[in-house]
Amino acid sequence: MMTSPPWAERPGRAGGLAKGLVLTFVVAAVLFPIYMVVLTSLSTQEAVSRAGGLVTAPGELSLAAYRQLFAGGVVTRAVLVSLGVTAAGTAISLGVTVLAAYGLSRPGSLMHRPLLFLVLLTFLFGPGLIPSYLLVSSLGLVDSYWALILPTAVTAFNLVVMRSFFMSIPGEVTDSARIDGASEFRILRRIVLPMSKGVTAVIGLFYAVGYWNSFFNAVLYLNDNAKWPLQVVLRQYVLQGQSLFVGQSGTGTIPGQALPPGLAVQMAIVVVALVPVLFVYPFVQRHFTKGVIVGAVKG
Amino acid sequence: MLRNAPRTGPAGDLTSPAGTGASKHVGKRAFSTSPGARVPFRDRLRRDWQLLLMTLPAIGLLIVFHYVPLLGNVIAFQDYSPYVGIADSPWVGMSNFQWLLLDDGFWDATLNTLSITAFQLVFYFPVPIALAILLDSVVRPRLRVFIQGIVYMPHFFSWVLVVTLFQQMFGGAGLLSQILRDHGHSGFDIMTDPDTFILLVTAETVWKDAGWGAIVFLAALAAIDQNLYEAAAVDGASRWRRMWHVTLPGLRPVIVLLLILRLGEALNVGFEQFFLQRDAVGRDAAEVLDTFVYWRTLLTGEWSYGAAAGLVKGVAGLILIVIANKVAHRFGEQGIYKRS
């Protein structure tokens, strides 16, 4: 089972133990908070009050918190907003990025140097918060979901990573199709993209996570709190502990009784924010091979 | 001997996506000609119009949402009012910048930003390196992939989520306080304590990004020639000596590169992390340059002043990046752009 090379000395007992302990600690430091949050969200109100806070040992379980969240109302709406923005945003970003990455990937093509320079220059100097805000508001995008998508739709970094992958595809592969008279769009769709599933999945994940986690743009551009995505709701009701059901009419709770959200409900919101990432991640993780990521991490 | 061994591989290739990287493919393709081709413009347009069309949406978005607001920074030299517009707002020269340089809040934010950068250089920067070396020493492939999968994960969590998790663990009503109180001690709340704020944000950054940051070092480790280890072992070098004489020299280019890049980004410590915690901890500890611009402007409507602060930060950041690259080139590393 062990694959250490023959010249390596066998690890000493103390060294091996220390390494095991450190790695166990590292893994536990990531998993333990998630475990407790999930467990608390699934616990009954009694189990939470008995624990006096987060639940560490499984007691009586219940889905009440989730039932309350998804009975309609703030969180249900926020989840739908976040899903919609993530789906639309990822589709737009990925489409635009793939097209441009391919369009700039042919050596010697017309104008590709100045255009690439235009893309790369965005690394060095950002436009700044205030001018960006003024632009978005002058375009009339305040309180529009487009404000969460368009300003961040193209990340130069993702574009460059994708382009360098396309450039690593041998020219002979596409040249023959080109000689046969295939259009560039057809070559991209039929030849290049099928060869680039891994990089497309990873870049898609980067974009999707960016949209799902989108927080500050929503704070900045969405004044109407009925439009808030999930991250803003998470901050408002969990981090700042505001009451979830104030001003919310006819949804699951008794009107007029503004209970602060129970810890289980709060933790259920955290889980809802967490789950899509946990769910999508394993499918993409296997593509985190050196090729994609080494370029990708550099930024 | 070992130190001078030639090294190739991902570590050296780090910057290739950022470069134009085109030259090595030139001539391989039937339709491409040498750069600066003498093919007439009309023929090139006929040949490449589809490629140009493909880049159009991305270039358009970058122009509208990056370059247009970049020009919008001219309001830093105006007394801008949204009701009047850029064209008709009065020009005030450098006065916004003069006020800025006299503003204690601005200097406090700058100082906070630089302190946090310095602190994280010492207490965050080495963590991914150590983690990568540790992960690299796990020889069972499946176990290693499992651990990697877990430590990369928090990188994909939002800052709201990370701060919330920390609050639940270490906040006033969090798990740790709760345990302490159960055992008769007084609880504590590091989420609102300005004195330990720098520790808190660094711990959060380590939790969120150290695993992900290790990837680049893992790639560099994988590129180290295994024969070097074997040769060193045969020469009688112990495990630690091999780490010192083979592993660390192998990582050196990446470490130098990332260190320099981080210094070039010294004014950027991240926005959301501080935005989220500024209220709880207070301005004195948690105001960084980016949050300064936000609070000073959007709440008061002093657009020109905020734009001036943003511009100062942007220009200073650009100068730092250029210096960092000069230093990188002097060290014989590539930096983020190539020497021209």
Give a description of the structure.
The complex is a heterodimer of chains A (299) and B (340). With 299 residues, chain A is mainly alpha-helical. Chain A contains 15 helices and no strands. Chain A has two domains: 16-62, no CATH class; 74-226 and 273-297, MetI-like fold (Orthogonal Bundle), CATH 1.10.3720.10. In chain A, helix 8 packs antiparallel against helix 11 (197-212) and helix 11 (197-212) packs antiparallel against helix 14. Chain A is globular and about 75 Å long. The model of chain A is unreliable at 246-260 and 293-299 (pLDDT under 50). Chain B is mainly alpha-helical. Chain B has a single domain (2-30, 92-330), classed as MetI-like fold. Chain B has 15 helices and no strands. Chains A and B meet through helix 1, helix 4, helix 5, helix 6 and helix 8 of A and helix 2, helix 6, helix 7, helix 8 and helix 9 of B. Chain B: Its main location: membrane. Chain B: The chain crosses the membrane at residues 51-68, 114-135, 156-180, 210-229, 250-271, 303-324. Chain B: It holds the Pfam family BPD_transp_1. Chain B: Belongs to the binding-protein-dependent transport system permease family.
List keywords for this structure.
heterodimer; A: 299 residues; mainly alpha; MetI-like fold; 2 domains; globular; disordered C terminus; B: 340 residues; 15 helices; 64% helix; 0% strand
